[in-house]
Amino acid sequence: MILINLLPHREAARKLRRDVFNLSLGVSALVGGLLAGIIFLWYQTQISGQQGKNQILQTEIKRFDEQIKDIAGLEAEITALLARQQAVEDLQADRNLPVHLLTELVKQLPDGVYIVSLRQDNQIVTLQGVAQSNERVSELLRNLGSNSPWFARPELIEIVAGSATVAPREQRRVANFTVRVRLMRASEAEKMRSAASAATPAPAAATPAKK
After folding, report:
1. Residue 7: left if φ>0, alpha if ψ -120 to 50, beta else—which one?
2. pTM over 0.70
3. Tens digit of pLDDT for each residue in 82-101?
4. Which one of 46, 119, 174, 192 is at 20 to 30 Å from 162 when CA atoms are compared?
């Protein structure tokens, strides 16, 4: 017996392929959506974790900033305390400055130079005096500048020719001068003495005579 299929089998096969294709598209879309959701959730988890780390870092940074401010405040207080300590030490050392001033001034005055007035303003000393000649004034400046660790930077302010009466009928020409010099503190004078000692060469050892 011969069976004849009169149904539209081509249309049915075509419809079946369409349905399979649509189903595969739907499954692919569903799988793609699931993958996209998983990736999105993974990125969100990473972003949330990084934001948490950033928040921790910001907190630590603020804490360190406060510690830095505290350290800066402590350093400022230490600097102020050291400055006050140095000021107190300078004041204690400056109590003997008038003694050193007069002692060294007597040592460094050349013959023929006389001090008429002396004025001290902090560490600046102004000398007014009379000298037998300009050369005596130059010698005084050299002595103040190089022979004593207690004086520094002598400066000739003024020198004027004048006359002085040495006898009832005798007058001599003199030089009236004004000199300004810086009086060193005790610590500064000690440093200058140490530097001068270091710069002075040691005496050479004597060579024994040959027999």
Report:
1. beta
2. no
3. 888 877 877 776 777 788 88
4. 119
